[in-house]
Amino acid sequence: QLQLVESGGGLVQPGGSLRLSCAASGFTLDDSPIGWFRQAPGKEREGVSCISTGDDNTYYADSVKGRFTISRDNAKNTVYLQMNNLKPDDTAVYYCRRPQGNYWGQGTQVTVSS
Question: 24: helix, coil or strand?
């Protein structure tokens, strides 16, 4: 059964850091591009970052560029989202997605607040 499971969310103060994980089962991550999305209360889900297969090209939304880094560890079948210098506007539920088949994880809550 194909599954994505996010973890690593939590409460952090502005300026702090978190690392989100997206662990895959039922398929090999290095065969698939993976995207991170987020949805804040009352707002539409938006794309944050994605990583391709093969050459591992990456994409970042302008709002997170220079602060977030996406990476993959094929040995652990996991994609990470390192988030630094977090801001209150980063507060949202973060999801990872496999485009093929439109598979989504259950999400992990990130709250940035003092």
Answer: strand
